[in-house]
Amino acid sequence: MNDRPQAARDDKTRKRADEGIWETVKVVLQALLIAFVIRTFFFQPFNIPSGSMIPTLWIGDYLFVNKLSYGYSKYSFNFTISAFGKDLFVFGPLSFEGRIFSGRPKRGDVVVFKLPRNPRIDYIKRVIGLPGDRIQVLHGVLYINGKAVPRKRVEDFIIPEGPNKGQHIRQYRETLPNGVSYIVHDLYDDGIADNTDIYIVPPDHYFMMGDNRDNSTDSRFLDEVGYVPWENLVGKATIIFFSHKPEASIWQPWMWPFVIRWSRIGTWVN
Fold first, then answer.
1. Is 263 annotated in the active site?
2. Residue 231, H or E segment
3. Is residue 269 in some structural domain?
4. How far apart (Å, rounded) are the C-alpha atoms in residues 270 and 8?
5. Which of 67, 74, 114, 125 is catalytic?
6. Is 15 designated active site?
7. Where are the beta strands (DSSP E) in the chain?
């Protein structure tokens, strides 16, 4: 009995299987390469781990940061991929100074930046002070160059979830000199950073503040954050592409429809 035709068919089958596997590997590698290029040069995903930017950003929000907004510095290409408490992949920072294709942030932009005292840590805050500005807070009112920033009391924020669900928080609408308007929270009268000295923003630095004014470690705390150098800016927050409640768990897929904040997906960051 001649087994050659069967052997030839088996060889062709194995060859097609091998080609199929290789094609799948190539597609996966190409997708990973494209994702790496987009993440490195254009849009970087960022998740919100704290409540310092409530009500603009909530814990569990995931957003894209536009890295083209202010050009590139050595910190634009500095990120770490970690899992199970270990760093699996560390990239950057590169060894050049200044910025290329540079752009300046505007007052009111929501910006991701590298923490000056530890550039491996990402922070997200709102740009309040530009180089040369004089910034001060008195009794919770923000002053820029000696003038009070207008703020108007609006309807209270009612905490929608978590252990403090139902609690009322005072809200004010602030309007910066360039017309940018947003909501801030005021939890306490004369809180820890509600009365400050005058901060004079150095050249090529920016003064950052969180919208949750009594629960934000920001430029008001010089030893913790302080003035943020221009080269530490990573990019401008643009759009929320996903959001979930803090109690969400990857191990409980049956709960996903109920812990995803569907109304926040696709929301622009202002």
1. no
2. none
3. no
4. 65
5. 125
6. no
7. 43-47, 61-66, 79-83, 86-91, 110-115, 118-129, 134-138, 141-144, 147-148, 151-158, 168-175, 181-186, 199-200, 205-209, 228-229, 233-243
Contacts of 167 (CB under 8 A, 6+ apart): 158, 159
Please report where in the chains the tokens 């929270």 appear, as a residue.
185
Burial class (CB in 10 A: 0-12, 13-18, 19+), 10: exposed
* Cβ pair 48, 61 in contact under 8 A: yes
pLDDT in tens, 170-213: 999 999 999 999 999 998 888 889 999 999 999 999 999 999 99
Q: Which of 52, 76, 216, 243 is catalytic?
A: 52
**CB distance 100 to 67 below 8 Å:** no
Which CATH number covers residue 178? 2.10.109.10
Whole-structure pTM over 0.90, yes or no? no
- Maximum C-alpha span of the chain: 100
Q: Scanning the structure block, which residue is given the tokens 């000696």?
A: 146
Classify residue 21: in a domain, yes or no: yes
